[in-house]
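Researcher: Let's walk through a ligand-bound prediction step by step. First, I give you the protein sequence. Second, the SMILES string for L263DTV3. Third, you return the three-dimensional complex as structure tokens. Ready?
Model: Ready.
Researcher: Here are steps one and two:
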Amino acid sequence: MDRRTAAAVVNAPLPEPLVGALRELARVRRLLVALDFDGTLAPEVDSPEKARALPEARAAVLRLLALPNTRVALVSGRALRSLVEVADLPDDVLLVGSHGIELRLDDPHDRLALDTVELERVDVLQEVLSQVADSIDDVWLESKPAGFALHTRLATDENSRLAHLVALREAQAELDDLTIREGKNVLEFAVRSTTKGEAIEHLRRYLAADAVFYAGDDVTDEDAFDALQAHDVGLKSGDGPTLAGFRVPGPDEVAHVLAALATFREGDVHEQ
Ligand SMILES: O=P(O)(O)OC[C@H]1O[C@H](O[C@H]2O[C@H](CO)[C@@H](O)[C@H](O)[C@H]2O)[C@H](O)[C@@H](O)[C@@H]1O
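Model: Step three, the predicted complex:
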């Protein structure tokens, strides 16, 4: 799509039911805006460290952050450290990393503490999965505090399938009760089982939020959509089955929706 067509798509009016839902949501007293990062705020790229939120999405997030009783959280599969780097947002953005395992809320000293058994299991996982990544072309391993992501984005379909098969077989032969998640060109292994849905429930309680907006694009975001309640709004970015109430084609349109939510909420604040 060329830039003019893309601009026309993004500036196209949002569907009326979505606009109505955003207007309603903008009126609640305490609002949580929870956002997945890759594929939602940031277009997908080959190197995870190069991913950045679209400028329009970042601008909308900053507008939301400036509003009273409005908190923004990033809820990502990335390790917290990686999320902090690529997101580059102010410290009052709440962060959830590793699909819910890591949290950085308002206390910057909060740290994930794995017990000895978990640490040993991470070591075993590293040994097994490194061997898989080292033995198959264009497959690489991303390290996270409680596990690993086996990336196959640049591998052939055949090598990607092979990497998944061998990694599953070898990891499960060594360790039981692993949490295994398949995402976009990635297979993730963790020694803890927390989900993005649990993270949403935790954030809702932590903030005493009256309603939640959640946007996400991948399979693990479905846990978050599943945790939404009747008065919340879920927005799926891109294709694939979803529990979300609304869908847009991708990050450009997510940015448009966030800007609309900011505009409605700014209007309501001025009316109060
Ligand atoms: O929950 P998210 O914020 O969407 O994070 C999910 C995974 O994102 C990253 O991988 C994905 O995005 C990369 C950059 O666009 C892409 O190269 C890769 O193919 C995707 O799987 C991240 O590296 C993972 O750790 C996250 O779990």
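Researcher: And what stands out?
Model: The first strand starts at residue 31 and ends at 35. Residues 36-39, 44-46, 48, 51, 76-78, 142, 149, 151, 153, 183-186, 188, 218 surround L263DTV3 (CB under 6 Å).
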